[in-house]
Design a protein that fits this description.
Elements lengths: L1 H38 L2 E8 L6 H20 L7 E8 L4 H13 L4 E3 L3 H6 L1 H7 L3 E2 L16 E3 L2 H15 L7 E6 L3 H15 L5 E7 L7 H9 L4 E5 L2 H13 L14 E4 L6 H7 L7 E4 L9 H12 L4 H4 L2 H23 L5 H9 L24 E3 L2 E7 L2 E9 L3 H4 L2
Helix pairs in contact: 2-13, 6-7, 9-10, 13-14
């Protein structure tokens, strides 16, 4: 009987001990969970851009791309319990508004900044340096980098793009003599920037002749300009502007029967353009007149199947974007800059260092060699260093075929960009 009581007592004590341990573990887990929640960090970023006003056709999908990718990072807990909070403000392409937005973002303690226009990036260059704020603009103007330590271009500059198009002309011109080229540019630093660099490439040996540089106005009819260029023997026009004036020019050229049916067709004009001149929006604006338009960028396009296209469309679908935004190269432009900022945060966290504007700046400078970043949104890797602040050096040439942009050849890096440096 005593043995039985002793056995029951032992069982009771064992169960009680297990219960106490179990309760203790639960309480400990609750404490750990509370501590983890308490320690979760919010990383503040800011974006000021033209969602409305001039160039909003690019700014609106760009903003959506940034917003969707950061939402994805938070929803999928890519940073664990930490989150990214990126406030997006419309500056309507007004530099004074951009400056006020940036100053307000600073007061909120942002650690990374995303800017937009060439004008505001140039105007705030010293502000970025004084604040020691790593900054990625939507402007690819090479002049953004001059005298700046904290501005990083997401992809190859407009100058590199225009030089790449000029090199393609020189290498694929089938007619006799030096190909005659005109440049059709935006009347601003955004448009003018590449002209002198293309001229430097010509002086360094690039075999094209720049016959005329046209700064377009608000004219709705390009007939006189196109006829003048044709009379001068121009066979190629490189555009560095936005989509709408290019669409108008293509429609006028189509009406005049001037658009080449094949690259460099004799007696006709082959039209080419840099990043902001093309994309699916150009096809929508120009219709059949966009056929055979040659265009270069570092981004993938959704008219070409692949992992990048699948990822872009899936992200847009997840956050309820319409077809126009989902297929915009400026949507993926916004996604990519958000990817780079996120990658910097991930790398800093992996090293166990505090995530600050200083540590993120160092991560950008270290993004090269084996540390290059390979997003699926671009045709080449993102690389930065102390001496190279252009992200993706690689470009892809596309041309419109049956109403869709299709790749022409393999991704390439323009040769003369390094020659003229």
């Amino acid at each position: 009987m005593k043995k039985k009581r002793l056995l029951l007592l032992c069982v009771f004590l064992a169960v009680t001990a297990l219960f106490i341990v179990s309760c203790g573990q639960k309480e400990e887990a609750k404490v750990e969970k509370k501590e983890a929640v308490a320690e979760a960090k919010v990383y503040k970023l800011g974006l000021s851009l033209a969602i409305t006003g001039p160039t909003s056709d690019a700014g609106d999908p760009y903003a959506k791309g940034v917003e969707d990718y950061f939402n994805y990072v938070n929803d999928m807990k890519l940073l664990g319990n930490d989150k990214i909070e990126c406030e997006i403000r419309d500056d309507q392409y007004k530099t004074d508004v951009t400056k006020r937005n940036f100053e307000d973002f600073l007061s909120q303690g942002i650690i990374f900044y995303l800017n937009y226009s060439t004008g505001s990036t140039m105007a705030l260059k010293k502000d970025f340096d004084e604040a020691k704020m790593p900054t990625i603009p939507a402007s690819f103007h090479a002049g953004n980098l001059e005298g700046s330590s904290y501005i990083f271009l997401p992809i190859a500059s407009y100058s590199a793009q225009a030089i790449g198009l000029a090199e393609y002309i020189a290498n694929n011109h089938k007619g006799d003599g030096t190909p005659k080229v005109a440049m059709y540019i935006h009347p601003s630093a955004f448009g003018r920037g590449p002209v002198s660099d293309v001229e430097k490439a010509v002086a360094a040996g690039l075999k094209i002749e720049i016959v005329e540089v046209v700064e377009h106005g608000k004219d709705l009819d390009n007939t006189a300009m196109l006829q003048r260029l044709e009379s001068k023997g121009v066979q190629y026009i490189i555009s560095q502007t936005i989509q709408s004036p290019v669409a108008t020019m293509l429609k006028d050229a189509s009406r005049l029967g001037l658009i080449a049916n094949s690259f460099g067709e004799d007696g006709k004009i082959t039209f080419l353009g840099c990043h902001y001149t093309g994309g699916n929006d150009l096809v929508s604006l120009a219709g059949p007149a966009a056929e055979n338009f040659y265009w270069t960028t570092s981004y993938i396009v959704t008219s070409e199947p692949g992992v990048g296209t699948d990822a872009q469309l899936a992200l847009a679908k997840k956050y309820g974007r319409d077809e126009k935004a989902a297929n915009s190269h400026n949507y993926i432009n916004g996604v990519m800059v958000a990817q780079v900022a996120t990658e910097c945060i991930l790398r800093a966290k992996a090293k166990g260092v505090e995530v600050t504007k200083e540590s993120l700046y160092e991560e950008l400078l270290d993004m090269n060699g084996i540390n290059a970043f390979y997003p699926v949104t671009t045709v080449g890797p993102v690389t930065y260093s102390e001496t190279d602040k252009q992200g993706v050096d690689t470009l892809q040439l596309y041309a419109v075929e049956n109403g869709e942009f299709k790749s022409v050849g393999k991704p390439f890096i323009p040769e003369y960009t390094s020659i003229i440096q």
